[in-house]
């Protein structure tokens, strides 16, 4: 077997042990599934050079791996013209689709997970490691893009760069768009009298007419299989010639000649394709509202904050989007201008999130993430515009390989200066620093930075005369400038830290520089709830409380943590009211830090504020004008807010 530029080797490899969902397999949860792999080796390759590129591909849902062979051919030609040589290309069908689906036909269940294939690819890389030499480049389409992002998160240094072709990863559930495609696939025809008849039927569809002819030929060759199959056990033979009597006169059977064709069906069953689009989450008597309170055993990955999760949902795109900040390899996004998964907001969200977290590439701001949109194309970019896809990918890959080679040379030059005996040892600089007073100095600097942020927050709050909820929404939405105009003197109150690596916004920011880190936002919440107090141990308790939600999309999680902290503060104050005088004094000293914003409020007023914040309400949501006026006058008297010095 071969393509225009490659000879092909086929491999079969056991998939990862234990699938993500219990019903991913039919009978035994420890059943061994296999993945069908193809390795593409350049025909004109006489030897392998250091620095030759290894490509790992990943296919879209319902499309066999062979449909990307024209892309590999075009990419090889263009890269070779730029003095970048492909060592080999590797791609595997996911375990329940394509040739892998045929191998596992009698073992498959009805609950596939997108997170299984990244683990399978990781095993593939380890197994064929002597062929998987750096630099490695990942090229994934649609769900395949999601697979490679997760593989890069499992092993951040594996890939030098990723080319993501209209990948599926978004902040909220997108069941509306998926339901239309899934519904159409559910009722699609999946059986034809012969391969020739199937080709004619597909050829009449505008859907397939838009494809590159080479891709369409691969679809007819590899997207179909002959009957019988597990779900189509019956078969009728389509006879193209008059049958001849068997050579064995003792039998009454008739043997068709080599031109006889057999019924065909989809190699990836429509059932596995649709089940991959959307996962069922139906109401039951025990869990009548599974969108908000799902079965914790079978649907532990349902996140109510991400939108409707019943009757169908798909957790992996949302979970993957939440981890985009931590993607380390550089990323080229190829978007379809007419694609439902690449609307302007979805594109902007990916661009704003990818690579900006700790351990990430640095994101678009550092030139490590780029987007190109094919305005006239939908989701099937590598099927419809193979050459343009290869052109755009080549330009990006060439620049990234040049960077890779430069960094490799620098690393090898510096590392070679260290004697081999010293390489596994601590160097002198390390030993000197580890025995110094570095920990105390670091802690002191952090405390000073946090105190400055807390003081700024108090000043901004006193200027807004609003509840924490409003100020937090400004931070989280980030669709307005986070510079707050102080209402008393019209003075701009600038945040002391104007940039960071971690985004908390729910949408693309118009002011991406002024975003707080996770820990900084924790301090902001604590400062707001303390109503002007300095930060002490309760702040770090809050940080701990929200630690498990920092990578989950949706700012509702922050409010939950803030409400819990407000409730804790309120309960502490209630305990003070019932304590003895001596206990009151000790408890107050332990739980009420000194104010940085002026005199303390009365406990009653503070409790009212904490209650309002705990319920997620503004103080004046349900008040009459007269009552509001009295309350505001009372607060002014009780607070005695002093002017804070302007922040630098």
UniProtKB/TrEMBL annotation:
Compositional bias of kind Low complexity: 578-596
Bias (Acidic residues): 610-623
Protein origin, superkingdom: Eukaryota
Stretches the record annotates as Disordered: 572-648
Residue spans of biased composition, Basic and acidic residues class: 624-648
InterPro entries on file: AB_hydrolase_fold
Protein name: Uncharacterized protein
Organism annotation: Zymoseptoria tritici ST99CH_1A5
